[in-house]
Amino acid sequence: MNWLTNFVLPKIRAVVAKKDVPDNLWHKCPGCGQMLFHRELEANLHVCGKCGHHLRIAPDKRLGLLFDDGKYTIIELPKVIADPLKFRDRKRYIDRLKEAQNVKGAPPNRDAAVVAHGTVGGVATVICAFDFFFMGGSMGIAVGEAILTAARLAVLQEAALVLIPSSGGARMQEGILSLMQMPRSTLAVEMVKETHRPYIVILTDPTTGGVSASFAMLGDVTLAEPGAVIGFAGARVIEETIREKLPEGFQRSEYLLEHGMVDMVVHRRDLKAVLEHLLDLLSRRGQKTPLALAKPRPLPEQHP
């Protein structure tokens, strides 16, 4: 009986038992609804192979995509007061923060922005990338500190500054303190511009609210990923306010390109090459050939 119970029965159960299958093997494309296998999606830089929709990605993946050889150093950001207003709606703000920070593998005191430095095309570069998966990438005091830290580091290292917003705007739980990050971040990037270092913005989906109304639209060059929603107020709110139907594609990156708000719309696979090209042009110093006459490296072909 012991032989049957201890040996045969476990073997039978192992054969007929339902195996656990991870629930993240397939992802549904928000653009066309196609089911995408996670390995193919990873190989395609999280871009749908059927419709070209650019899915949102975490900051670590974005940093690895842009820095040379995927190598970079994360900068530890200053600690800020967690809940300055003791805000509470259906639950306490401090509890919401803890839930957002309680992610496996996440650094302590994680917030909606990550700052790293390294090289892009051999040019010293500081990148501040937003994390939309952290409370919608909302901009509070911690994000303001991240942008200010990135700007100071760029000035100190005589490096280029690249900001990659992906945000729903200011963080409502921090009230006026979150709104004050708009002028604060604007002054931070102006500090970089005063040293004549390149400041480039890469707009991703979505870039809205107070983020788009401050540092996100102040880049020396403004790039955007295809199909990204970029604007201040939502399209529905605008329609209800002006009582008119908005044009098709309104607030998408292609629409902003047509109306002069964005310099280039760049596919994610070409983003590093374009960024290298821009930094190569904007970072030249002490050359005999005038910048306007210097022969730049060819840009990669643009894809629809």
Name the features.
304 residues; alpha/beta; 2-enoyl-CoA Hydratase, Chain A, domain 1; 7-stranded mixed sheet; 9 strands
Can you summarize this structure?
The protein has 304 residues and is of the alpha/beta class.
Description:
- With 304 residues, this protein is an alpha/beta fold.
- Helix content is 34%, strand content 13%.
- It has 2 domains: 17-55, no CATH class; 56-282, 2-enoyl-CoA Hydratase, Chain A, domain 1 (Alpha-Beta Complex).
- It is built from 11 helices and 9 strands.
- The N and C termini lie far apart (69 Å).
- 36% of the residues are buried.
Question: Which helices and strands occur, and which strands form pairs?
Answer:
Blueprint: H1 2-16, E1 26-28, E2 35-37, H2 38-43, H3 59-66, E3 73-74, H4 93-101, E4 113-120, E5 123-130, H5 141-157, E6 160-164, H6 175-179, H7 181-194, E7 199-203, H8 209-212, E8 221-224, H9 235-242, H10 253-258, E9 264-265, H11 271-282
Parallel strand pairs: 5-6, 6-7, 7-8, 8-9
Antiparallel strand pairs: 1-2, 3-4, 4-5
C-alpha Rg, in Å? 23 Å
Write down the overall mean pLDDT.
89
Task: Note the gap between the termini.
Answer: 69 Å
Q: Based on the coordinates given, report the CATH architecture of the largest domain.
A: Alpha-Beta Complex
Strand fraction equals 5-15%
Q: How many structural units, i.e. domains?
A: 2
Report strand order across the widest sheet.
Answer: 3-4-5-6-7-8-9
Number of helices: 11
CATH superfamily of the largest domain: 2-enoyl-CoA Hydratase, Chain A, domain 1
Main sheet: strands, sense, barrel: 7 strands, mixed
Considering DSSP H and I runs of 4 or more, what fraction of the residues is helical? Answer: 25-40%
Shape: globular
What fold name goes in the CATH topology slot of the largest domain? 2-enoyl-CoA Hydratase, Chain A, domain 1
| SS-derived structural category | alpha/beta
